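Quick one, probably user error.
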């Protein structure tokens, strides 16, 4: 199979950058911290950010394999929305129901992953 590693790297990095804004104080960071109880002072940044980047790259690679070589923009965007909202966010939703997490937290995390996979689709189709 033909693999565009540049597109995969850019897609993976886009999710990392999106998360940096999405979960920052200018995004939903303060609400997310309040809803999760996470104290940013207790976070190991190398572990968290390094792991997030690695996992974003893995997800982009697998999504590229799912889309196949040279996907159309319409297919890639549609698959991105479907994967983010239809698979990832709904899976989070199931867990959040049992864990009694808030609707706010579900919308923040589900929204991020919907945009994450939509960005993957965009980048993988145009690069």
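Nope, works fine. Designed sequence:
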């Amino acid at each position: 199979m033909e693999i565009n590693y540049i597109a995969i790297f850019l897609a993976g990095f886009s999710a990392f950058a999106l998360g940096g804004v999405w979960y920052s104080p200018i995004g939903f960071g303060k609400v997310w911290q309040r809803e999760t109880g996470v104290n940013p002072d207790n976070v190991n940044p190398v572990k968290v950010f390094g792991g997030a980047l690695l996992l974003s790259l893995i997800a982009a690679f697998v999504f590229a394999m799912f889309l196949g070589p040279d996907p159309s923009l319409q297919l890639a965007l549609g698959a991105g929305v479907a994967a983010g909202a239809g698979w990832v966010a709904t899976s989070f939703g199931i867990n959040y129901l049992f864990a009694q997490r808030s609707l706010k937290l579900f919308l923040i995390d589900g929204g991020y992953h919907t945009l994450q996979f939509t960005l993957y689709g965009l980048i993988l189709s145009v690069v």
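The mean pLDDT is 96.
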